[in-house]
Amino acid sequence: MSKNTVNAARFRRVDVDEYDENKFVDEEDGAENQLGPDEAEVDSLIRQGNLMEALQAVLKNPPINTKNQNVKERAEGLVLKVLSAFKSSDIEKGVQSLDKNGVDLLMKYIYKGFERPSENSSAVLLQWHEKALAAGGVGSIVRVLTARKTV
Amino acid sequence: MAYHSFLLEPISCHAWNKDRTQIALCPNNHEVHIYKKDGTKWNRIHELKEHNGQVTGIDWATESNRIVTCGADRNAYVWTLKEGAWKPTLVILRINRAARCVKWSPKENKFAVGSGSRLISICYFEQENDWWVCKHIKKPIRSTILSLDWHPNNILLAAGSCDFKCRVFSAYIKEVEEKPGPTPWGSKMPFGEMLFESSESGAAGQTAAGGGGWVHGVCFSHSGNRLAWTSHDSTVSVAEGGKTSTVNSLRSETLPLLCVTFITENSIVAAGHDCYPVLFVYDGAKASLTFGGKLDVPKQAAQKGISARERFQNLDRRASETQSTEKDLNTLHKNSISQISVLEGGRNQCSKFCTTGMDGGLGIWDVKSLESAMKDLKIV
After folding, report:
1. Where, in residue numbers, are the WD repeats (chain B) (predicted)?
2. How far is residue B147 from each of residues A136, B155, B215, B321, measured CA to CA in Å?
3. Which of left, alpha, beta for B234 (phi over 0: left; psi -120 to 50: alpha)?
4. CB 3.0 to 4.6 Å from B115: which of B40, B43, B51, B99, for a disulfide?
């Protein structure tokens, strides 16, 4: 009963789920070529003031399948830059210019952005969220929640 | 549209008899109750008590008048009517998790049970031993089977599973039937062969597809050439046999749909957590699926003046002075719809279908009156 379990407690660190033979393993989708949106292109479009094009460009090549966290964070930062650059009155037009896939992808980036709030990001994201919700409906939010591979 | 509130508890599952005068349903407990229609009222005439766990699936074989039930106690029972009472026969399913859904085959010589043991049990009656025997379909199912539907040829079975896939298997039992002819889904059909599996990304050309969601409901069309399924990521998909590349998904704007059925060869009705049935139209030539309309006629809320007292009450409760009608549920069902069944007309010319849900109510929908009530609705 009073056995010293500090050293003998290594078994407590075993992750039993790894040894479960019925464990569900996601299918690996080889996606080493998904590098996220092109930073240079997006930056130049923002500087030019062509925000619609910047939105389309930043939603290209979403890093959905990679496990590389850096790529994902870079993509998220870039998206946030574009979304903050929009004027409040233009947000609705920006959302209208997207197709259904685009709205779903935008919703994914918005929720990813909510996870790490910075100074003004949440306010901007909330405005985008309202317009994206009007376009995509609750279905787009359900797809963010159920997606196994997300940005 | 008729609505009858049976219980306060959810109706877990239901099944109709041949002439639609009796309905067997599970009031979210271990029993099955059979109600008989008497004018506008429903009277409970039988109570089937044999299960030790919640009854998760009921199916009524209309021609041979047998009921099969399956439950969370890992058992299934086949009930036959003898001298005015229903007598159960145990079926050993050899599963070690709860059974989730059960369906008689079109010829009613076998039935399929989907379970949490990640397999489908196909059960048939063996004459020599006077006993129900079952065979398992295991590969490549990786999670609970949530829904099943038989193809009209009595051999093929569609299964929707929690591993995000919808599959078509062959359930050919050589002891009870002849070898089947070729179908658009395939020509070689040994038992357990998988003839179709939905891919993860759904519609062609989607780069932003997620991983999909649990497949809640599956349904073959009347001809068996089309298969529709609904998934937890709020999508509806249709696949046509033989054309494996064209799986058409529609990402809906609603909450996930839990059940689906064909009402004509091109029209699909689905219902789910949004509490109202929804129509989808599939165009075979263009291979596209479109949203057809919401099939619920909202009751017009009476506009009356709000007293000062109500204004303050609303301010207190909702932070706004007006009665917000968006939050109020003005649909027929007051909670999610979990099952939909065709009452009249079959799956190619359905004229009436019925929905049951978690509000303990049963809704009967008439297709003709829905078509006339909604101006833009077209059932093709």
Report:
1. 48-84
2. 28, 17, 8, 45
3. left
4. B99
ipTM of the complex: 0.81
Would you call B234 and A139 a contact, using CB atoms and an 8 Å cutoff? yes
Task: Name the minimum distance, in Å, from the CA of A2 to any CA of chain B.
Answer: 39
Phi, psi of A130 (to 5 degrees): -60, -45
What residue ranges in B83-225 does DSSP mark as E strands? 85-91, 99-104, 110-115, 120-126, 131-137, 145-150, 156-161, 166-170, 194-197, 215-220
Averaged pLDDT of chain B: 86
Distance, in Å, from the CA atom of B91 to the CA atom of B88, rounded to the nearest integer, reads 9
Query: Which of the residues B96, B97, B139, B234 would you substitute to probe the A interface, choosing the one with the greatest number of A C-beta atoms within 10 Å?
Result: B234
* Spatial separation of the C-alpha atoms in residues B378 and B15, rounded to whole Å: 28
CA angle B19, B71, B51 (to 5 degrees): 90
- Can you give the length of chain B in residues? 380
Using an 8 Å CB-CB cutoff, list chain B residues near A101.
206-208
- Residue of chain A nearest B235, judged by CA positions: A139
Phi, psi at B174, each rounded to 5°: -70, -20
CB contacts, 8 Å: A27 with chain B:
200
**B108 lies within 8 A of chain A by CB:** no
3-state secondary structure of A133: helix
Instruction: Give the integer Cα–Cα distance in Å for B375 and A132.
Output: 29
Q: Percentage of chain B surpassing pLDDT 70?
A: 88
- For B103-141, how does the pLDDT look when each residue is reduced to its tens digit (9 = 90+)? 999 999 999 999 999 999 999 999 888 899 999 999 889
Query: B195-223 b/e with 16+ CB inside 10 Å = b?
Result: bbebebbbbeeeebbbbbbbbbbbbbbbe
CA distance B258 to B248: 18
Distance of CA B361 to the CA centre of its chain: 16
Tell me the chain B residues in contact with residue A62 when contact means C-beta distances shorter than 8 Å. Answer: 207-208
Which two tokens mark B14? 């239901």
Identify the residue among A146, A148, A150 best suited for mutation to test binding to B, counting B beta carbons within 10 A and taking the highest.
A146
Tell me the angle at which helices A69-85 and A121-146 cross, rounded to the nearest 10 degrees: 130
